[in-house]
């Protein structure tokens, strides 16, 4: 079966909505993820990628996100006191339909929603979309030093495949090693069940903001 790239449509969940992101979302995205703690372990190329002004962030975002080739989403809250508020971004990209391959990445959230249903449901929606369009392998990467992201990816049920050495440049010019994970279509029934169980634990409770952490937790 040859995979087909999904259209850039809105994906509705119980706790979040994934909406195709445009440049108009960027000021709200800066308010959500424009914090040093988001970048300190590798996002955006690491601490040197952080921009402390909205103008700087908008210029950085223009070349960082895969606008042309990826399905780039803004993540917003569904229900509760924060209905409609943008809390992050994630992307399904690097499509290779002939190999049934795609990649989930460029993911970051407002630290106040770490540990909520947001990440689990975002992955649930994206994985369901990808496998539903015939993709057989979804890759997820993290900077090898980013223990928080690696723990979060492992909790999804992804398989750790190893370290790709000197894989990508960081914003400071150094080279990062990447921790490589995958979820294949054979894994999807079990991964889906695990994610549904995690989401069921939040049932009836909308996403509520937590206090801004001063250090990244190990299990977002």
Distance between the termini: 35 Å
The 3D shape can be described as globular
Helix content: 25-40%
Strand order of the largest sheet: 1-2-3-4-5-6-8-7
Question: What count of structural domains?
Answer: 1
The total strand number stands at: 8
Looking at the overall shape, the CATH architecture is: 3-Layer(aba) Sandwich
The sequence of SSEs as H and E is: EEHHHEEEHEHEEH
- Poorly predicted residue ranges: none
DSSP strand content = 25-35%
Oligomeric composition of the shown chains: single chain
Number of helices: 6
What's the CATH first level?
Answer: Alpha Beta
Mean residue pLDDT: 95
Provide a descriptive summary of the structure in words.
- The chain has an eight-stranded mixed beta sheet with strand order 1-2-3-4-5-6-8-7, with helices on both faces.
- The radius of gyration is 16 Å and the shape is globular.
- The chain has six helices and eight strands; from the N terminus they run ββαααβββαβαββα.
- Helix content is 27%, strand content 28%.
- The chain is an alpha+beta fold and 220 residues long.
- Helix 1 crosses helix 3 (54-64) and helix 4 (118-132) packs antiparallel against helix 6 (188-200).
- Strand 4 (86-96) and strand 5 form a beta hairpin.
- The mean pLDDT is 95.
- GO terms for molecular function: acyltransferase activity, transferring groups other than amino-acyl groups.
- Keywords: Transferase.
- Pfam families: Acetyltransf_3.
- Residues 16-180 form the N-acetyltransferase domain.
